[in-house]
Amino acid sequence: MNPTILIDAIVQQTTVLIAQLSTAAGVRAPLATIADQVFVELAREIERQGVSKKVAADMFGLALRTYQAKVNRLQESVTEKGTSLWGAVFAYIEQENGRSRGQLQEHFEADDPMSLGAVLKDLCDSGLIYRTGSGAATRYRAVSEEERESVLEAQDDQALAAILRVAIYRGTHRLEGLSRKLGMSVDRLAPVVDALIDEGLVTKTDEGELATGGIFIPAGSTIGWEAAVFDHYQALVTALTRKLALGSTVSPEHESTGGSTITFEISKEHPLRNEVHGLLSKVRQDVNALWKRVGDHNARVNSTPNNTTPKNGEYEGVPDKSIPESEAETVTFYFGQSVSPGETP
Known about the structure:
This protein is mainly α. It has helices spanning 3-22, 34-48, 53-59, 64-77, 85-95, 101-107, 113-125, 145-169, 175-182, 186-198, 225-245, 273-277, 279-302; strands at residues 99-100, 129-132, 139-142, 202-204, 210-212. The strands form two sheets. Strands 1-3-2 form a three-stranded antiparallel β-sheet. Strand 4 (202-204) and strand 5 (210-212) form a beta hairpin. It is globular, with a radius of gyration of 25 Å.
């Protein structure tokens, strides 16, 4: 096993994922602090694994004092988002009742004109600003803050609520832990958690422990995409880390932790093409049916009815309460499929 080669390859693929997410659906997420954030989170996790600060510093190629100073400094500032040209242009346009093309060119004269033009086009395409006039008379105005924030806040809270439920269901039962896991402040998360409690989707004990049932996001749903991606990626990483923790690089035939990747090479005329393309749908149906049967069994054991009607587009998972918590197993099954089309002649 050569961990250095594997780490390099995983870092490369992770950057591809982050790049895709940062530009998804017309959004341009700020990336100025991402290197610092990665350093802080990696340092925290290495120390959680039982590695001393001295050894961790050596792993980063830093002296112990330099390592500690860097961690302390970045922990204080990592949540502050850097300002990109995209963000700076948007903020400048927002400050007044619009800006003319000449004002923008003068204000950002130190920046590449082509980059400025690309940012302005992107802001218009994203619906955050609109343009009137043409040529020298062109003027850019921001969409009203109230309209934009009302839409974005509703979307953000819906997405965050689903991600929070996934994180709680997967074992993070306190607000402080959720804050660390998601990289968001307690103040940001608390009102969303309170809303989930009010809706009956999350429960809270007197000791502050949070709990939620299984969250089901049906295919075709327009709500919960972020939570589904988060849960799938988390499941993959959890399976890999647990596999590594077992200390074995060999996969036995009947293992219960691990995964397989199968690639089919087919043509559009292949007789089994439809069967191969239908694998995702088939496995999803089989797994959902099994998940429902497990829930029905647990409901019978608990002498409580299993709600088979989706609530807010979700089915509620039912745990078997007859099993002592110390003996209960949580089996997370993940799967996926991607199709790479051949080159069009």
